[in-house]
Amino acid sequence: MSTTPLKVAVTGAAGQIGYSLLFRLASGALGDRPIELRLLEIEPALKALEGVVMELDDCAFPLLSGVEIGADPTKIFDGVNLALLVGARPRGPGMERGDLLSANGAIFTAQGKALNEVAADDVRIGVTGNPANTNALIAMTNAVDIPNERFSALTRLDHNRAISQLATKTGASVNDIRKMTIWGNHSATQYPDLFHAEIAGKNAAEVVNDQAWVEEFFIPTVAKRGAAIIDARGASSAASAASATCNAARDWLNGTPADDWVSMAVVSDGSYGVPEGLISSFPVTTKDGDWKIVQGLEISEFSRGRIDASVAELADEKAAVTELGLI
Ligand code: NAD
Ligand code: LMR
């Protein structure tokens, strides 16, 4: 394990997710390597961010080698190996993700350009801020020299939600569930697919043996969980989103186990009929900081329709941000 600190940028660091994420990162969520945090916020939030940094100091985290804060992305992203783009306006009650496209799109053009200019050559960029897939597309398109494969959007929270629902239904431990898949957009059209998942080595759909539950409960519960949390908390998910952001970054950098895969929204190469260039969620394996889409899965007619619907939404979002001149 390298003793050179991993430089990790977090945007929106004074926000809800930041308040959970920073402490997880600093306490070793990515592994034993020391880390340096580079925290980006807008000017009005810098004072609050100073308070968060005071708390980070007060934890005396052994792995935290330094913290820098600021509002200029070209300073904060300088030399970063990992950029976690969280900062964006969250959805409020009654809002759909489409409403966020124009509000948040501009943030990701500027940040894509800044990363292109100053990030380390090995940078990996994970987008949590919504609409995550399309924000990642905007950042990727504006970072012309960074390979497209270095961008991903977060669907790990959906993946974790799906595992949790399946565990509750079957009485299994989450530790026994493998090969869950989220396809498409991090939105209500996403398709959580348990047909390839396994519970203690057995096919999950066969263990569940209840298609009505899959269609009427499992899929909508996972897909609409974000809205259910907003409804209950009056604010969007934060600790679970931070946890999933850590899980996704750790697995991307350190690799997935041989008997499992994870869900990540990555640039499509045309696999499974998803148009090339869209950032869509797939089952992926990772090794040494690179990901590969799992190939050869059989897609039933039921699954096909759901994947196509979510991918159509991604194509619409792409058309909308093209129209807005963001890509
Ligand atoms: P929040 O409003 O609490 O925090 C967002 C922070 O971003 C604020 O502090 C704001 O000042 C900052 N910010 C705004 N513009 C910025 C910019 N240009 N540069 C740097 N920082 C900027 O929101 P939150 O609850 O922490 O959520 C953040 C985002 O994550 C939202 O878009 C939310 O919808 C999204 N989210 C995604 C997932 C997922 O699974 N992908 C899950 C939960 C939330
Ligand atoms: C979530 O999935 O919890 C977030 O993306 C918040 C939202 O707007 O749904």
Automatic annotation (TrEMBL):
Residue stretches making up the Lactate/malate dehydrogenase N-terminal domain: 7-149
E.C. code: 1.1.1.37
List of catalytic residues: H186 (proton acceptor)
The enzyme's main class, written as a single word, is oxidoreductase
Q: What does this protein do?
A: Catalyzes the reversible oxidation of malate to oxaloacetate.
Q: Which domain of life is it from?
A: Bacteria
In the record, the note on similarity to other proteins reads: Belongs to the LDH/MDH superfamily. MDH type 2 family.
> SUPFAM superfamilies from the xrefs?
LDH C-terminal domain-like, NAD(P)-binding Rossmann-fold domains
Q: Where does the chain bind NAD(+)? A: G12, A13, A14, G15, Q16, I17, G18, N104, Q111, T128, G129, N130
Signal peptide coordinates: none
Output the InterPro entries linked to this UniProt entry. L-lactate/malate_DH, Lactate/malate_DH_C, Lactate/malate_DH_N, Lactate_DH/Glyco_Ohase_4_C, Malate_DH_AS, Malate_DH_type2, NAD(P)-bd_dom_sf
The protein's organism comes out as: Nocardioides phosphati
Positions of the Lactate/malate dehydrogenase C-terminal domain: 155-323
Q: Which UniProt keywords apply?
A: NAD, Oxidoreductase, Tricarboxylic acid cycle
Q: Please list the residues that bind substrate.
A: R91, R97, N130, R161
Q: Which CDD domains match?
A: MDH_chloroplast-like
Q: Provide the catalytic activity annotation.
A: (S)-malate + NAD(+) = oxaloacetate + NADH + H(+)
Q: Does the keyword Lyase apply?
A: no
Q: What is this protein called?
A: Malate dehydrogenase
